[in-house]
Amino acid sequence: MIILDQEVPLKENLLYAIERHKILWMLLILSAVFDFITTYHFMTQGSIDLEANLIIRYLAHTLGIVVGVGLGKIMQLGAAMAFCALNKEMSRGVLLIILALNCFAITVNTIY
């Protein structure tokens, strides 16, 4: 794919990121599962309106808590894949940032 007049090998970059950072991908998927569980618990005990993420809140109102939060987590993993496909050198940083955000969300959901 050509982006800003430069060839960007999306598939190769993504495969590189998956192969090179397997542990981070596994941790990201694990944290997404825990975030799903804690967000579900948080929403059923409290309210959907207390969710800070506007996209997750909208999806939960529109599609229901389970489907909305699940779709939001799938979209998050898709975004991680997209960013890693754009630049293989930044893939570790992208995965670490998303992992840190998931850990923060799990903590906030658990405390509430």
List keywords for this structure.
112 residues, mainly alpha
SSE map:
Elements: E1 2-3, E2 6-7, H1 10-20, H2 22-45, H3 54-63, H4 65-86, H5 91-111
Antiparallel strand pairs: 1-2
Helix pairs in contact: 1-4, 2-4, 2-5, 3-4, 4-5
Structural features, described:
The chain is 79% helix and 4% strand. It contains 5 helices and 2 strands, in the order ββααααα. It has a two-stranded antiparallel sheet. It is mostly helical. The chain starts with a strand and ends with a helix. The protein has helices spanning 10-20, 22-45, 54-63, 65-86, 91-111, and strands spanning 2-3, 6-7.
| Lateral arrangement of strands in the main beta sheet | 1-2
Instruction: Give the percentage of residues in beta strands.
Output: under 5%
Largest sheet, strands/sense/barrel: 2 strands, antiparallel
Query: Over all CA atoms, what is the radius of gyration?
Result: 16 Å
> How much helical structure, as a percent, in the residues?
over 70%
Number of helices: 5
Q: Termini separation (Å)?
A: 44 Å
| pLDDT < 50 stretches | none
Helix vs. strand class: mainly alpha
H/E series, N to C? EEHHHHH
Overall form = elongated
Per DSSP E runs of 2 or more residues, the count of β-strands stands at 2
Average pLDDT reading: 92
